[in-house]
Amino acid sequence: MSLISPERGYLLERIDYDSGAIEGVAAALATLVDHAGDARVVLDNIHNGLEGRGRAITTVTGLAGRLSQRVQPTATTIGRIADVLRGYADAVTSHARIANDLIDEIESAHAALQVAEDAAADARAQQDALSADATWVAVAGAASAVDDADGDLDARRGALGELWSRWESAYRCWDDAYGAALAALVTASGTTDDPGIRMAISSLAHADAPAEVAAIWASLSPQEQQELFERHPGFIGNLEGVPYPVRFDANRAVYDRTVNGMPYGEPLDGQLRQLGEELGPEFAGELLMFYPFEQPQATAAVMYGAAVTRDASGRIVGDPLAGTTNVSTLVGGMFSSLDDLSAWGESARNLNRFADAYGGTGTRSVSIAWYGYDSPNLLTEHTMGSATEGAARLTDALRGLDNEMGAGVTSTVIGHSYGSTTAFLAVGGADGATGVDRLVAVGSAGVPDGYHAGWTGDDPMDYSGVEVYASRAPGDIVARYGEWSSFGHGTDPAEIPGAIRFESDGGTAPSLRGTPEDVARTPGHAAHDGGNTIWGWWEEDNGYLSRDAESFRNIANIVAKGEVLQ
To answer: What is the number of structural domains in the chain?
Structure first.
């Protein structure tokens, strides 16, 4: 059971932080500022003191002068970012540590309070059960027991309240520091935003939930929204709670600006080109999330199926998601990156088509290819590091999706291989609801332990209210190895109580027209092409998510109807 603070309604949760790493980044940025200063000195010397005449000398000195002018504002921005990070590192060390240290005490005090409440109830029940002819000694003893129980209950309540007060204070200070740091980073370039825009940025940065962000955004004037869009598209485009159409346009603006700065080198240049194809008219993807320079790999999320209409100025008009009945989020596993986007984009589009066909009249499907984390490699697959980081981001994205789509839209998350590890942790390990209705695992490398009532770990899984489906091909050796070799994700999702298995070994399934047709088995582990190897190089076009695979047709029916094919 999740605990909520009594005064401010904060969810009792552990704050993950690494102040040493933050300070290390700040120090590295400060060193970069020093180097930039040295570079500017050299450039100024060239500009002002390079001897000689002629076109070449004039060109070099002029270029050196222009570069020197460009270096200074960049160095200033980097210096501001370093200062922000140092300030946040100090705040997180002070406040987050205190808040985290109180969690165990609060949970223990809460458990003790429940015991005291039960004892007080029992004492009253025994008092009420006394017969009318009970002795004075029995009556007095029962009354004394009630007084003692009530006294203990009051003491327990007081102790818990004092702990909650201390925790709320520390958590609020950390939360304020986080919001302030985020707002400062948004404006670190020194843009001349007016006070109203700066206040809006601060409010959005301090918001604790997508619904709060949405309310703040709606309260802004059209002019303020436009200014935020034009000056800070990277911030607006990735902020859960900002309407999706706005995010589509903002992230597209960032994408166009990023592409104009090419080349950056591989693999980023190739990923940007592939992303551009998916955003083009042929595939009509919309960029829901975009961090092109995130390390170790760029991250993005592309939505397919949005009915986007633009006006003469190119801005989206109307609601491109009106009438949507279901939305699917696809999460890739080991080695997945934007290099795979063409295959995952094709699966997302096919899923929309088949779910619409299987669901019948009134069904409208959209899908998201989500690349929001650093997927593991062979050395890290058996651990939970990538899943833990990715799950936190995916949880936020799913809550934003729930806020955008509303309660009437069915949300399904589909994870392949280690992607199922991340997806199940994002939903089952989340504090509070995510809005997800169905979880689907194919070729799972194992999901986090702790779904059962007897789990005693720090992070128990809770899949209540979520339909769980799973399939693992008979010949999928890679998935089984991932589960057997894992540290923290050694549970076959099909073993979760209430989970429904579905087949991936071939047979017949409905076509888009509803008529039965032969479908392929999945021979190994591949999501799309390939056999039973990690990289795949034989038995093509019958991975778990290939359109003619039995597993894919089952997934489409699950998305549309919440049922596996018979």
So the answer is: 2
